[in-house]
Every structure is written in structure tokens, then in C-alpha cells.
Amino acid sequence: MSENFLISIVGPTAIGKTALSIKLANYFETEIISADSRQFFKEMQIGTAAPTSEELLAAKHHFIHHKSILDDYSVGSFEKDAMDVLTNLFHEKDVIIMVGGSGLYVDAVTRGLDDFPKVNPTIRETLNAQLESQGLQALQTQLKKLDPSSFKNIAIDNPKRVIRALEICLGTGKPYSSFLKKSKISRPFKTITIGLTADREKIYNRINQRVDMMVAEGLVKEVEHLKNNSPLNALNTVGYKEIFKYLSGEWTLEFAVSEIKKNSRRFAKRQLTWFKRNEETLWFDFETDIKTIIKALESQIKA
Fold this sequence. Notes:
Blueprint: E1 5-10, H1 17-27, E2 32-34, H2 53-58, E3 61-62, H3 75-89, E4 95-99, H4 103-110, H5 121-134, H6 136-146, H7 148-153, H8 159-172, E5 190-197, H9 200-217, H10 219-224, H11 241-247, H12 253-275, E6 282-285, H13 290-301
Keywords: ATP-binding, Magnesium, Nucleotide-binding, Transferase, tRNA processing
Protein name: tRNA dimethylallyltransferase
Binding site for substrate: 13-18
């Protein structure tokens, strides 16, 4: 094999990406790059469904619990770090596996980050003040009006992402989505993207089962240890923000769990919308036999 290949596994949350990545890593005798931005943080294990200790032993992983929630770690930092690791690994391996449901982080490695114009920093300050006084929903409504495409595709429950999109809209007078890269940049490897999916009911059932398992495994206790850091952006995410509401007495545990399930389902829908933009993705039902997937991959690699 004369070329290097990055096999990128994408798909909605709870679909089985981690299990598939380990099977493929073992088959190709290689290592795994995680592109799941929530699994970077060592304090967040249960609520992010990070690989278990057994899974981490089954194949070597990179970018799992390598940062603290107190660290300032951006998608730009990840792109640089991931490319450095890939460069080193490709000296020894022809195939590397990348897995993760964070579309922006996956694209940062496979396509490169988009270039945005600089805008007046006072715009972000104003938006942050608006978030504080009016709440996230007001910003979401504003983004929906200015840039419906971004409203549909970005992590709309993440204030940082919403504010970033809005500041570009307001600072340039053009939609944030109009600045998104239309073509890939050159990379010293070929990317084969495979996606796992299922019908909506099965995806939602798997999400509900995973959330119940998280609660049984001690999600509430994990979040309780982090409540003093609840304002941090890393913790403003599904599975944590809802339990913070329970711990503060605003919600019952039953309602908090139901909200985690609902928000996870919404997240899965956005993930599929994002990943289906890539027309080159090879999609498989989540129950597809591993031999079928390997055969499809080898036909691409040997082409």
C-alpha cells in the first residue's frame, strides 16, 4: 500500500461508532483518533459515553481524557494536535481510524477549518451580555432569522457556537454559513468516511437506553462533583446541564432524565443533518456485519 488512508467513522450518538472503531483498528492493526469534543475532558466520563477502560485497552486511542474542563481547548487547537499525531502515526501505519460525532472537529481534520473575517470584538461582548440578560433562546431566534442554514446545522444548544455564528452575521452583514468552506484543502492522506445509521425509532430507542444506563452507572454523582464548575462551557452540554438543574432543585430527577433523552434525540438529528452533507460518505445500517464493512473499505483502499 503506497498511500495513507484515514478511515473516519461518523453517525449519531449511541449508534455504535466506538465498537466499530475498535473492530476496524484491530483488523487494520492500527490506532484510533477521537474527534468527540466532549470526550477530551478527563472529568467527564459517564455523561459523554467515553470508551471504557476495557475499550481503551482493546485499541490504542488518542485524544481521550487528555484535557481538563479548566483548559481552554478549541477546534483550532485540536486540528493542529490531530494533524501532528496523524503525521507521526502515518510513518508507521498505512491506515488510521478516526471516530467521533462532533462534526466540526471531524471536518477540521478532513477538510480544514474555514477562514472567517475579523469582526469588532464589541459585538461578542454585546451578545454575551444579551445571553446573560435574555437567555439562549433569544439568541437562537435571532440566528434563525439571520442565518436559517446555520440554525439548522450548528450545535444550537451551545451558546459559544450560537454567539460565534451571530457575531459573524452581525459583523459582516452576511450569513455565517456563507463563509463555510466549499471544498477540501489538501491533506497528505486520503479520507474514507463511513457512517452508521438506523431508522429514527431505533436511534431514539438506543439513545433512551444509553441515558438510562448512564444514570444507573452514576451520572448524578459524576455531575455533582462538577457542580462548582457548572458555568464552564465544557459542562454546558447534554447530560450535564440537565442534572445541574436537578441538583439546584429546579427539576425532579425524572424530569431531568427525560430532558437528557429529548435533547440527545435533538442532537442526533443535527448530527445526521451535518454528516449527510458529505455525499462521499459510505452509509451502513448499524447492524451491518463487520465483514461487509471491511470489504467495502478494502475496495476503496485498493482502488
